[in-house]
Every structure is written in structure tokens, then in C-alpha cells.
Amino acid sequence: MAFHLPSRLQGAQSNRWGLKRSQQLQGVGHACMALWAVLAGTAIATQLPWIQRIEGQAQAFLLTLRGPVTPPTEVVILAIDDESLAQGEFFQNHSAQYPYLEPLATWPWRRQAYATAIERLMAAGARTVAIDILFVDPSSYGPADDAALQATLSRHGQQVVLAAAYESSSATGGQLTQLLQPLYPQIPHVGLINFPLDPDFKIRQLPEAYLQEVKAASGSEISLPSLAGATLAAAQLPVQEQGNQLFFYGPAGTFPQIPFWHVLDPQNWTLLKRAGVFKDKIVLIGPTATSLQDIKRTPVSDLMSGVEIHATAVATLLEGRGLAEAVPNSQGRGLLLALVLGAVGLLLGHQLRRPLPRVVGFAGSAIAWGAIGYLSLVYGSRLVPVAIPVAALGVAGLTYTAVGAVGDRLEERRLRGTLERYVAPPVVEEILRQPQDFSIFVGRRLQAAVMFSDIRGFSRLTYQMGAEDMVQLLNTYLDAMVNAILAYRGTVDKFIGDAVMAEFGSPVSQGEQEDALNAVCAALAMRQALANLRQTLRQNGQPPLFHGIGLSYGELVVGNIGSIKRLEYTVIGDVVNVASRIEGLTKQLGTDILITESLYQRVKDQITVVDYGQHRLAGREQETVQVYGLVSLKEGDPALYHQVQADLQSHLRTSLEGQIP
């Protein structure tokens, strides 16, 4: 059989085309991997807004995966929540019974409420109090209300922090940033409540980053610290700076919150003071009620109040847990990412050639990268790009898989095209369905039917016809014979001049009886095909063709046989020699198809034969072989057999007469 097998079965030099194509496709996969690595590195280096959004989502996922972390116990929120706001309506209905709720009667509250809260918190041992509310205008309740708060600030100003803010508004010539400061000038600690927003409009960075933005935009120094920085300064605690991003301890509600009105209520306040809730604490007062619209978006929650974010900033600076990029410089980060991704991807692409291991390898590397990003974030407070590298590894894995699939498809098409010249399409399908069953192609023993077919008087015809006509006639004949063989699941082993060698049951058997019957049916189909061809040849004035066919059944040795540079999938064994000899015997017996006893016994109930008895074969003079002339299938019409016999005898007589001088 002349078809060539994949390089893994023949050796590196036996299938150069397949090896070259495989190398080309592997090169395409490597080039794509390098491209993805460069694109990923470029994306990280440029820090485009959409890249920041994607990486921000990945960071949010890792924080969600981490879960809440216990915040420092030193930070407490006195919340202006919905419950506290509801006390105003309650007071209006029970004013005489609950006079202490009068400062909360309507929003905005009287500043007397904050003065009372500060006095009580200081009395309870609070370390410092920061108020996340802008007191930039006089109280709407009159000068006495402002005076009450001012008096409290005069007594405890060193431990109180008030809020300031930069406010941007449209003005001629561009954006005008206005500084809004509290109207109580005697307060030494004032902090800005502004936070910078990332491209996805979420707060991630420490407030000091906003100060840098304002400084860069205005070109002037900023004299005020952030509210968190001012709060730690008032508490006389050092700032433990580490990174430039907030360390989120958890979603909204992670920090302990106490409703503001509990401080004004005598009964609740007594319990809070007795429990030491505010002893040595940093207390932040600010709105958490949704109706007050101080709700921000963060990586851990889309509904986090501003005061909770300030508490997060205070805790981050207090514990020195600020997040920082593992590689601060974005260009350096992008370059390093491209190199690492390229090295990992190319290594996996080179080492893993099969689809499943390759998919598993790239998926595993993507998971490992995500795990590294998670561990770096949670335990090292260092940010490693996650989304873009994981996506790049995923796309690279898909690319390698797609390129491999294309290569496998091309190789399958090449192999199919080669096999179908010699093997019946159903057999080809069966071989391709079990590509890992290499025992089909290595040396093994099996039972199969062997066919030899040869044209009568072919040598004489080569002298009578021109070379081109002879080749055309031979190709026409062989095409008809091969079609008949393939139609019955035969395998064309080789062409030897005008002779054809084929097997039935190799490389894939359908069972002994089925293989033997397929060989018989193929021989009968070849008889019919040649009879049809003879009619065409006579009509065209060309010499008629007759052939002899020999069939035998027995044990074969099958496999790739040849040298390293040239291999053929073929069969050897005594049954091959017998089939070849009885094909030659057809000339002596004056018939076209002979079969041996071994084949006959497997199909005798299905065919009609002529018993030609025992015969000695060339090279086997010491033993005889029983042969039968094949007439037809039992349910078939024997007319063609008799017609062929008559035509063959007539042809032989004509040939003999032409040889007599």
C-alpha cells in the first residue's frame, strides 16, 4: 500500500511535508502568543481608561473573594442614618416627652446637635472627633445655634476635625475649583473630604491622590490635608503610609456604626458610656442615610457612604495597609508583564502539543496568575495586573488550540486524500476515528483475503500501442478496477505495472466471512466493470482487455515495511504468494477468476463455483492447492460468467491464430 502515514509513525524523515506544515503552524501559534503578550504589556503600560476599568473589576472580584477583614477597633462611626433622621418626625409628635430630640427636628439639624455630641464624646474619652459635614454657611437657625457649636469647638478644638472641600463649577474659560472651608476659623484641624475617581467612577485611591491632582491643575501648594490625615494628626497618631490605594476592609457596614440619636438620648447614652464604646476611639460623624445622597461607588460596594470611605482611609493610614502597584512605573510594569507572559505562553505552547493538555495548561496558568494576584493583594498589599494577563493567557490558549485544530484538520484532509486513493471511504473513516490506535500501522498478524489481478497479454499491447495511448488505456482500466475494490471495503496495496494487489480485512476487518464475501463481490464487480469497458474499447476501435484474478484467504503480517526514507503499508505472507500464483493459473485454466479452498469455505453457501480440482503452483511443487472458478453469487445471474468465458476463449483463439506464421 503506497499511502504514507503520519511522521510519528514513520520517523522524522518519512513525512517532511507534514513536519514542515506542523512547524509552520506551530510558528503561527508562537507568533500569536508573542503578539498577545505584547498587546497585554502595551495595555498595562498605557493605562487607558477601559484598561483601568477592567483591572478595577478584577480587583473588586478578588476583594469579594477575600471577604471582609476586621477593621481596627480604634475607628467608630456615629451615623446620621435613616433611624436618626426619623427622630425629627417622632419629636414633632412627642415634643414634650422627648425634648432632647429637638435639635433633630428638621434636616439640616441644628448645630447644637453636633455640639452636644462632641461634648458627650469627649466626656466619654474619645480620642478625636471628625465631622464629615460642611459647615461653610451660617446656621439657618440663627447666630445662637452657631455660637453653641463655636463654644464647644473652643473647648475641644484640638481634638475635633471639621470638613473642607474643593468644589468645581463651570465658569468662563474652563473649570473653576473653589475651596469651601468651615466658618469657624479657630479650629486647627481641617481636612478635605474629596476623593479622586477612577475611570469607572469608583473610589480606590487615598484622598492624598486628589490633592496631587489639584496641585498639578492649579500649580500651587495645597495647605490642607485630607480629612483622614487631619483626623490622625488630631489624634496624635502617626500616618503609616505604604501605598496610594485604600485598603477596603469589607463592604458597607463593615465598620461599627452607632445611630447619632443614641448620643442625645439619655438612656442610650448612659449604656454607651458605661460600655466604653467611645473610649480612646476615633469617632467619625457623617451621613449614611441614602436620602442624604452621600453614597459612593467602591470596588467592594456600589452603595458605600462617604463617612465609611473616610473611616476606611483613616484605618488604612493608621495600619499602613495602603495598596500599591507591585511595579510602580506603568511602562516598566507593562514591559515586565509582556516578558513574563511571553515566556510562560511560549513555554506552554512549545511543551504542550495535544489539544487537551494545552487547554489545561493555559487554563491552569491563568488560574495560577489569578492566584498570584490574589495572594499579592491579600497578603502583600501589592497590586498585580490580573484581568489583562488572564485574558491574554486565555486567548493564547484558544489561539494555540485553534491553530492546532487547523493543523489537525489539514493533516486529516491530507491523510484522507492519500488514503482514499487506496482504501474504501468507510475504512478511511474507521481509521480516522481511531487515530491513537497505532497498532493498525505497526507490525501485526491478522486474517484477511488477498487479491491479485493482471491484464492478459499486456506486454504484447505495449508494443502495439503508443506510449500515451497505452498509459491512458491503463489508467482507465485501473480506475475501473480500483473503484470496484473500494466499493467493497478493499484496500489497494500496490500497483505492479498493470497488476493490482488488494486486501480485504486489512487494516480494519469486518469479520472473516464479511471480508471474504467482500473480496468475492469486488472480483465480480471487476468482471462487470471490465465487460463494460470492453464494449467501449470495441466501439472506439481499441483492443479488448481481459484479466485474471486470484483470491485467497489466510494469515498475513501487516505493517510499515521499507527503509527510513521510504515506507509502505503492505502485507506479506504465504497467502500473498498463493493469491499471486493462482492469478497466474487463470491463464492455464482459461478462466478469469479463481479462488482457493480457504476462501471458498467461508463463502461457499453464498456463491456458485466451478471445481477445478487440485493444482501445483509455481514454487510450491511439493503440495497442491484446491481451486475454484467463481461463477456468481447464488442469487446472481451467471450469464455474465458464461459471456466472459466465451469472449475469453474467442480472444485466446484469435491471439493464437495471430501468432501462427
What's the number of helices? 21
Largest sheet: 8 strands, mixed
**What oligomeric arrangement do these chains adopt?**
single chain
Low-confidence stretches: 1-17
Report the β-strand fraction as a percent range: 15-25%
- Using the CA coordinates, give the radius of gyration: 47 Å
Give the % helix.
40-55%
- What is the distance, rounded to the nearest whole angstrom, between the alpha carbons of the first and last residues? 43 Å
Note the overall shape: rod-shaped
Report the mean per-residue pLDDT as an integer.
86
How many E-type strands?
A: 19
Class by alpha and beta content? alpha/beta
Would you kindly provide a written description of the structure presented here, covering whatever features stand out?
There is one protein chain. The protein is of the alpha/beta class and 661 residues long. The chain is 50% helix and 19% strand. The protein has 21 helices and 19 strands. Strands 12, 13, 14, 15, 16, 17, 18 and 19 form an eight-stranded mixed sheet that branches. Strands 1, 2, 3, 4, 5, 6 and 7 form a seven-stranded mixed sheet that branches. Strands 8-9 form a two-stranded antiparallel sheet. Strand 15 and strand 16 form a beta hairpin. Helix 12 runs antiparallel to helix 13 and helix 12 runs parallel beside helix 14. The N terminus is likely disordered.
